[in-house]
Amino acid sequence: MAEEQINGVIITFFSTASAVGKTLISINMASELAREGYSVCLADFDLQFGDIRNYLRLNPEYTITDLCDRIKADSGSSLMPMLTTYAYEGVAFQVIPNPNKLEEAYNLSPETIIDVLKNLRMQYDYIIVDTTSMFSVLNLALLDISTIVTFLGIVDFIPTIKNMKIGNETLRTLNYDSNKIRLVLNRSDSKTHIQLKDVVSILGEDFYHILHNDFISASESIASGIPLVLNGQDSELTQELRALVARYTNKGYQTTETQKKNSWLSKIFR
């Protein structure tokens, strides 16, 4: 019997500003989805300066360069054996690392990278894509193929907000389905004199989801190489990340306390 193919969901993280937390959040989304039992592939398509391999302490044998070479040689070949596995405490997902060498990034065509994604989405429930902060040819192609685009912003300086507004308006002109673009605010309570309500007024719409600033937890996660949703700390930021995943999967997120209550009740009514 032929193996059943999946039409996986592609969630792309995009921004018009650097250092907004795309990599941290994309890693945690992949980790949480894998923790919930989904098959997940995390792609680092910041081809020149991607940092997923460093965050997760990976030493990949193959990168996106090798996957592109394979797909050009045989479009129907399985790419899964060439992916890098991240595993921690029984949770595992696959990773597509960025190229080993800077010059390799210039030789990769957006069309071939998209072919890689089309191949892999038949094998995974979710593909999470981390990108650079620009409207490049590759990023536009990634936005087109994505099921959901998480447009990530922070509220720190006026130029950042201006770029967020321009980026959001540009995305809206691409005539995507209204539910495709999810405006997410990261580090919402950073020390700044800019009020959130003023940013919402400037953008002309509310944020889909808000993540609070937790510099200590985020820094410890990066230093340890263990995603927030897997390190057992259950910080406020961890709960907010899980709540974001729950909204994307249409599952209601339960806090640790609720899970404990449900576990106690389930023992009674077994």
How would you characterize this protein structure?
The chain is an alpha/beta fold and 270 residues long. It has one domain (9-268): 3-Layer(aba) Sandwich (Rossmann fold). It has eleven helices and eight strands. Helix 1 (22-35) crosses helix 10. Mean pLDDT is 87; it is low at 253-270.
- Give me the secondary-structure category: alpha/beta
CATH topology-level name:
Rossmann fold
Detail the poorly predicted runs. 253-270
- Biggest sheet, open or closed, and with what strands and sense? 8 strands, mixed
| CATH structural class | Alpha Beta
Beta percentage is 5-15%
How far apart are the termini? 37 Å
Number of strands: 8
Mean pLDDT: 87
Summed up, the domain count is 1
Order of helices and strands: EHEHHEEHHEHEHEHEHHH
Q: Name the CATH architecture.
A: 3-Layer(aba) Sandwich
Shape: globular
**Tally of separate helices:** 11
CATH superfamily: P-loop containing nucleotide triphosphate hydrolases
For the largest sheet, list the strands in their spatial order.
Answer: 3-4-2-5-1-6-7-8
User: Considering DSSP H and I runs of 4 or more, what fraction of the residues is helical?
Assistant: 40-55%
Question: Radius of gyration, Cα only, in angstroms?
Answer: 19 Å
Topology:
Elements: E1 9-14, H1 22-35, E2 40-44, H2 52-55, H3 64-73, E3 84-88, E4 91-96, H4 102-105, H5 110-120, E5 126-130, H6 137-145, E6 148-153, H7 158-172, E7 181-185, H8 196-203, E8 209-210, H9 215-224, H10 236-249, H11 256-268
Parallel strand pairs: 1-5, 1-6, 2-4, 2-5, 6-7, 7-8
Antiparallel strand pairs: 3-4
